[in-house]
Design goal:
Radius of gyration: 21 Å
Largest sheet: 3 strands, mixed
Helix content: 55-70%
Number of strands: 3
Oligomer: single chain
Order of helices and strands: HHHHEEEHHHHHH
Strand content: 5-15%
Distance between the termini: 31 Å
Strand order of the largest sheet: 1-3-2
Amino acid sequence: MCENHQVGKSEAKLISLEGMHRRDIVRGLWAGTLMIGVTGASGCADTAEFFAPSDAELEPLAAQAWEETKQQTPISKDARANARLQAVGKKISSVANVPGAQWEFVVFDSKELNAFCLPGGKVGFYKGLIDFVDNDDQIAAVMGHEVGHVVLRHAALRAGQERATSVLLQGGSALLGSQVKMSSESLNMVMAAAGAGAQVGILLPFSRQNETDADRIGVDYMHQLGYDVKQAIRLWEKMGAASTNRPQEWMSTHPNPESRIAELRSYITSKGYATF
């Protein structure tokens, strides 16, 4: 439970800016340690859920995006790659709790090392990733991760977190303008810093936590179905070796491979799925 939930929505505390130097305001905003208007609740899952669109809103948009992707990106005709993806996808989706999902698994003919899953159960793997992995256990690691995003409603929650942050920034701009005397140019500079702070201090960490949660549920599915959970770690060792020019983790939507490996080892051990 997030400690910030102890503060009710009607009891949100305003941050006093009186006496604060403009330099300190800007630094706090950019660092993500100060969010004008409301303290705390912006980082909690309940806030993201409150502002999140419903599945009924997202699924038609996802279905449209899926059809557009299939029209714009060649679909692989590799029978073996398609058979592998179908087999693993059917197993993972059979244990995932996604009511009403219309599962579809497609291999796209691209060398990209990536995969995605859209609300409603549309899963795309790029041929490059299928060729890259060592075995079906590693496909299951990716599949479990992607399906986990849908089970945990991460697309909706990320949209909700962005909406919440936007509301806070808009409210903060009005509050700052009323409490601190500064030119419109200075106010714009401060709010630009606030936007950067929100990105680095709230949105990116929220996204990285989503990735970690999806990694964990993916491993849960692997273990439940008898896949070798150690292959999830091997997959990220391979991805780490293959990736270049990665941004620093604090500037990324995803944890770096080293962080994922360490977290997965800890989680797998704590669950008793395997030992190292």
